[in-house]
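Can anyone check this?
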Amino acid sequence: MVRTTARKIGNWLRRRRRPLLWAGTVLMVLLASGAYALRDPAPVGYFTSAAAHDRFLATYREAMAELPAPDRTLDIRTGYGVVRVYHFDGTGEPDAAPLLLLPGRASASPVWADNLPSLLRLRDVYTVDLLGEPGLSVQQRPITGDADHARWLHEVLLALPEPRFHLFGLSFGGWTAMNLALHQPAKVAGVIVLDPVLTFADLSAAVILRSIPVSVRWAPRSWRDDFASWTANDAPVEDVPVADMIEQGLQAYVMKLSAPTRPDRDRLGRLEPPALVLLAGKSRMHDAAAAAAYAGDVLPAATVKTYPDASHAINGEYPDQIATDVGAFLDGKG
């Protein structure tokens, strides 16, 4: 009897090992928390000290200096905290729905430095520092699920004067854009996603394994630089202002966010706004070919395009081509 019970337990564990491992490692990858966060009772994200916050702000300001000057800086209060938003006045159609840019994990508004000049020729642009991430947004209430991730961003859109927006998200920002369009599409005119993670494909085993050693704040910077370089297909990251900002953010800020859930096929198939999906053919984050095939299948009305030689750092590698594809998409969507 004992032996039979043990065998049943062993079989159950073998069947469950992959999903259990997946849930645990995704949490580590996406929250960059490690063991310290597991015993940290704080319900919202925070900077670890005033000095750490000052160091982060110095790198944030240096990275922001790479962008055109915003004509408006907004701090929008939501039910989950205060969200930092920048508005950039474009030279394109003045009354058209603006672009609202959502950065990748821990990268904040400065990640768009290479893209803003060409995007501003198309439309006005807003950039957002994601709530609960290193940046100038201030989380004040727990974000415990995908609906919460959508609700705070929806409240930001409600506070802005334009009736509709084209969401444009990079990496985790792509997931954030799609998540909003699936949960709260009222003010979403279109969705543009740039090599989004956990949207059309799972994270690769390589990125999960490589991210585990650098997911704790006390890991040496060289490890994180190596990981960042690896995700950009071995491009150098030293002395890059936005990379310095991300490094300081990972050192200085403790994120307390629920891990994002990959949307299921039925939910994606009910997407209402039109979509443009741009994938990096050599992305190490996921299987780009599988992601493109899945996106084309589940979103038959979407435009799906792969940049064959792009890495996950696609936004900095192909800013003009991205703007051309975005412009073509906007011309047909208003």
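Reply from J.R.: I decoded it. Confidence is low (pLDDT under 50) at residues 1-38.
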